[in-house]
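Hello again, I could really use a second opinion on something today. My current little project is about how a certain protein chain folds up. You're getting the sequence in one-letter code plus the fold written as tokens. Here's the protein in full, and shout if anything looks odd to you:
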Amino acid sequence: MDIKKRRTMKKIGIIGATGSIGTQAIEVIRKFKNLYKIEFLVSYSNYKKLFEIAKEFNVKKVGIIREDIEIKNEDFIIYKGKDEILSLIEDIDYYLYQQQVLFQFFLY
């Protein structure tokens, strides 16, 4: 990746990536891959779909909110539970958050 391209790319994190709004956000990012780099993805419990998305976008950091799910995967750095997931938010430009029907877009 050249330096000019790296400077213009926005770093994104998506909380609720496997839900309906998260999936729509992924579709938009898919169309503008040259503008956005997904830094992390979080799902409540659907880790299989989360891993598929992470592989497509070459995302190494993923989070699962439910702490009782046992997951072993050497392809990703896995964060479990709310406290660990909060640590993912550092050093990104935007993150998308879905809570029930509410969709918020935060700009740092």
